[in-house]
Amino acid sequence: MRAEPVFDPGSPRVRFGAEMRRSREAAQLSQAAVAARLGCTQTQVSRLEIATRTPSKSDAEKLDQLFGSADGDHFAQLYQRIVSRPGGPVWFRGWVEEIEPAARILRSWDPLLVPGLLQTESYARHLFSHGPRITPEEIEERVQARVRRQRVLDRDDAPSLLVLIDEGVLRRKVAGSKVMRDQLDHLLEIAKRPAASIQVVDPECMAGLAGAFMIAELPDGQPDTIHMDSPAQGQVTTDRDLVASIWNRYEAIRLWAYPEHVSLKMIEEVKQEWT
């Protein structure tokens, strides 16, 4: 049986869910009745209440209308606490908090960097430190958010992780030689896990130059969800045409991947070059 994700009981999202349930029970409404008023499913209401779904601004506004709180914008205020929580962009939080913890299989491609799920703290900190107009506090918040995100791989029921990375990633200097050695060593350690696979892709692969992405396969017949990177704002979607397009691109890239045993040998050899 898949374990439920464990969330910080003091988080704004958990508080939102608890307040939603309290208000619903006080009004003697079923989850189905609330779902009808929100324009969603009973399952989605349940996920909001147990904090496995991030509420939208529209959800908050409709709940304030439904429950008629004394201040008029109680749920809107709770929603603002969620979206203002440090550690990463709002659009990506749904992926990290809902999709990755629920996924059966995560497939990843990155032509430029080690994927976030596999980055060491030092590697991630150096990347974040070069963001435009970022403060030391924001850097640390983002590093710690990345570390929390990676805990999904330490669960007993961790999703299978299939990673494709461009060969150039192994030689792209991020910080100094020690950071790179430690990072490549971390990749080798992750690759020892039964549910993880890391393959290096030949740099002549043109299909992967369009950018990084991830594909999440979810249980119980839920549609595949993709996350695509961009310089300004990434995209998380279940749109069938976009998902099919990314799946086709993934398969095209995979044709250029070296076998896993060859890939791991390459990582080990490049690690030795970082002296």
Structure report:
The chain is α/β, with parallel strands linked by helices and 275 residues long. The protein folds into two domains: 12-83, lambda repressor-like DNA-binding domains (434 Repressor (Amino-terminal Domain)), CATH 1.10.260; 91-273, Endonuclease, Chain A, CATH 3.30.870. Helices cover 48% and strands 11% of the residues. Strands 3-2-1-4-5-6 form a six-stranded mixed sheet, sandwiched between helices. A hairpin with a 6-residue loop joins β5 (225-228) and β6 (235-237). α7 runs antiparallel to α8 (136-150). It starts with 11 loop residues before the first helix and ends with a helix. The model is unreliable at 1-6 (pLDDT under 50).
Looking at CATH, which topology of the largest domain would you report? Answer: Endonuclease, Chain A
Helix content: 40-55%
Order of helices and strands: HHHHHHEHHEHEEEEHH
The strand order across the widest sheet is 3-2-1-4-5-6
CA radius of gyration is 21 Å
3D shape: elongated
Quote the distance from N terminus to C terminus: 46 Å
Largest sheet: 6 strands, mixed
Briefly note the structural class of the backbone: alpha/beta
Q: Mean pLDDT score, rounded?
A: 88
Number of domains: 2
CATH class of the largest domain: Alpha Beta
Uncertain regions spanning at least 5 consecutive residues: 1-6
- Give a count of the beta strands, DSSP E runs of length 2 or more: 6
CATH architect. name of the largest domain: 2-Layer Sandwich
Beta-strand percent range: 5-15%
Total DSSP helices = 11
